[in-house]
Amino acid sequence: MPSSYRNFRNSVPWLILSLEAVFIVLFYFVFPYDDKFIMSYPDVNLMMIFGFGFFLMSLKRYGFSTTGFNLLLIVLGVQSHLTVILSVLVLLLIEATVSMTAVVISTGAVLGKANPVQLILMTVLELIVFRMSRWMSNTFLLVTDSISMMHVHLFGAYFGLAVSACFSEPSPRTDKNARTPKSDLLSMLGTLFLWVFWPSFNSILSDRKWRVIYNTYFGLAVSAVTAFALSVLTTKDGKFRMTHIHSAVLAGGVAVGHAAHSIQYPWIAMVLGLLASGIAILGSYCSQGCLNPPLKLHDTSGVHFTFGMPAVLGALAQVILLIIKNWNNLPSMGYLVMIQVGAFCLTISVALITGLIAGLILNLRLFKSIPVSKYFEDQFYWEFPHLAVGF
Predict the structure, then answer these.
(1) Is residue 311 part of a domain?
(2) Which of 107, 294, 312, 338 is most enclosed, with most CB atoms within 10 A?
(3) What superkingdom heads the lineage (predicted)?
(4) Which CATH number covers residue 100?
(5) Domain span at residue 358?
(6) CA-CA distances (angstroms) from residue 347 to 134, 254, 258, 298, 323?
């Protein structure tokens, strides 16, 4: 480890313990238990810790850091979100855990490049800003909680991309960020876990749970089938590619999430699933070949085409459905469309602007960004009994 680099013993433990001390004090004054606070343990917590923990494990030498830092950020982030709200709500723990989806998605964009101090600070900053974005949507645009929460994928993807733009690009000659059959298999395990629980995720805050669950399932099913078909059609040798399946099978659930409560016919959810899967696979070529190079942007886990683009599709679909539903009532249609477009623009604008500011802050000399030569290496953070050759 370079002598100029900050020793983690002098930074990470004290940052974590300081945050935990603040949480304990605030919980002492603000969060007494009562009957409203007692609730069932949310399934979404399993998605965050187990599903995303393995979903992001695609780098061959960054498995320890992916799962370990994912757990650390989630448990700190949930407590941080609760202190931001500073009130006791029936759905408090669920809302805090779902909000962590934005952080986990953003982490995927900077995975392997940001050190633990930067990740912890990014988590706290992003949760505060995401809560502020939702508050503005709820207060000024009168968007419901369940709808504003479904912007979590959109916010997380573009906040993470903005933060990633502030980090140095890895060398194009390095193979440390390459995939291996083992890392792809573990990553696919997380994808399958997320796929199974995604209907619960989309419906957790909705008052039309059965409709959201069915629409989400149909969207996921079609996106999975389409992913296999497009994977064969877009590879030179006509074989399935695991990275395509990994990227596209969740796209339908992301796209349907915005409008799942208002979709009255299953075929609409199925069409959205088909389009989302196509956008995820074809968008990966567009992002990696046309968009990322001129912007000097490196998206480690492909969150742009896995979550960002399908989320944009979902927001657009919500607007189209509102137009069709209110076609005979032009004044009402214009107002509803304006609200949805405003919420979308607000979310993506806040994500990009604050993500860029956060990225600039995280790259201050105070936080000591790791050298590019040490990107994507577990050994820089974790103790190994032997060298992690081929890990």
Answers:
(1) yes
(2) 107
(3) Eukaryota
(4) 1.10.3430.10
(5) 24-30+39-366
(6) 8, 16, 13, 22, 21
